[in-house]
């Protein structure tokens, strides 16, 4: 991976912060998955969410099969950070940037696993569980759906996570 070339391209995007990571530093937790199952309305309704993504252990093994990674954030201002509906409505630009970052990494890596913010909003109605995903190359599983403790990863890499009424959108890309 030519990090200088990648960083030159990253600097052209509205990324708040980023860090090169070793996937082995990522903490996984069943506790995060519990939140998905009991608090998220998308649980069991999307290929990007559990249980479709597999168990936390299977997700952990998949991530750890990659030797390197990149984590980055974007920021979006909202009037009230506690207004979940308004907050979620701001994630589309982050997903577009995530696609751009994935495409940049693909110039230098043969395989890129992309985790982002999506419960997947690409299709009006997801085919899960009755048919395969219509857009597997465009759909990114949610970071939390894999059981990743995003706040821990941010702290380990000096990435600010709590920013007042700024939503911090978080993506993790592992590559080989």
Give short descriptive properties of this protein.
single chain, 176 residues, alpha+beta, 4-stranded antiparallel β-sheet, 6 helices, 4 strands, 16% strand, globular
Mean pLDDT: 90
Q: Let me know the largest β-sheet.
A: 4 strands, antiparallel
Q: What string, H for helix and E for strand, traces the elements in order?
A: HEHHEHHEHE
Cα-to-Cα separation, first versus last residue: 9 Å
**Unreliable runs:** none
* Assembly context of the chains: single chain
Overall outline: globular
Number of helices: 6
The proportion of strand residues reads 15-25%
Helix percentage range: 25-40%
Over all CA atoms, what is the radius of gyration? 15 Å
Number of strands: 4
Q: Kindly name the structural category.
A: alpha+beta
Across the major sheet, the strand order is 1-2-4-3
Brief characterization of the structure:
With 176 residues, this protein is an alpha+beta fold.
Describe this structure in words.
By secondary structure, the chain is of the alpha+beta class. 31% of the residues lie in helices and 16% in strands. It is built from 6 helices and 4 strands. A 4-stranded antiparallel beta sheet has the order 1-2-4-3. The longest helix is centred in the middle third of the chain and has 15 residues. The radius of gyration is 15 Å and the shape is globular.
Task: Show the helix and strand layout.
Elements: H1 3-10, E1 17-21, H2 30-39, H3 56-64, E2 68-77, H4 84-88, H5 92-106, E3 112-115, H6 150-156, E4 166-175
Antiparallel strand pairs: 1-2, 2-4, 3-4
């Amino acid at each position: 991976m030519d990090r200088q070339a990648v960083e030159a391209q990253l600097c052209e995007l509205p990324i708040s912060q980023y860090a090169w990571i070793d996937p082995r530093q990522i903490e996984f937790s069943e506790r995060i998955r519990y939140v998905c199952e009991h608090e998220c309305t998308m649980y069991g309704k999307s290929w990007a969410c559990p249980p479709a993504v597999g168990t936390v252990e299977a997700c952990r093994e998949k991530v750890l099969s990659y030797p390197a990674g990149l984590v980055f954030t974007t920021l979006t201002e909202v009037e009230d950070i506690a207004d979940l509906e308004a907050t979620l409505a701001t994630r589309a630009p982050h997903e577009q940037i995530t696609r751009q970052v994935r495409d940049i990494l693909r110039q230098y890596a043969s395989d890129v696993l992309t985790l982002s913010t999506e419960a997947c909003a690409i299709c009006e109605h997801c085919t899960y569980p009755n048919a395969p995903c219509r857009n597997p190359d465009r759909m990114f599983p949610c970071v939390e759906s894999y059981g990743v403790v995003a706040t821990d990863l941010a702290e380990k890499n000096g990435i600010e996570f709590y920013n007042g009424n700024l939503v911090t959108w978080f993506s993790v890309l592992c590559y080989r």
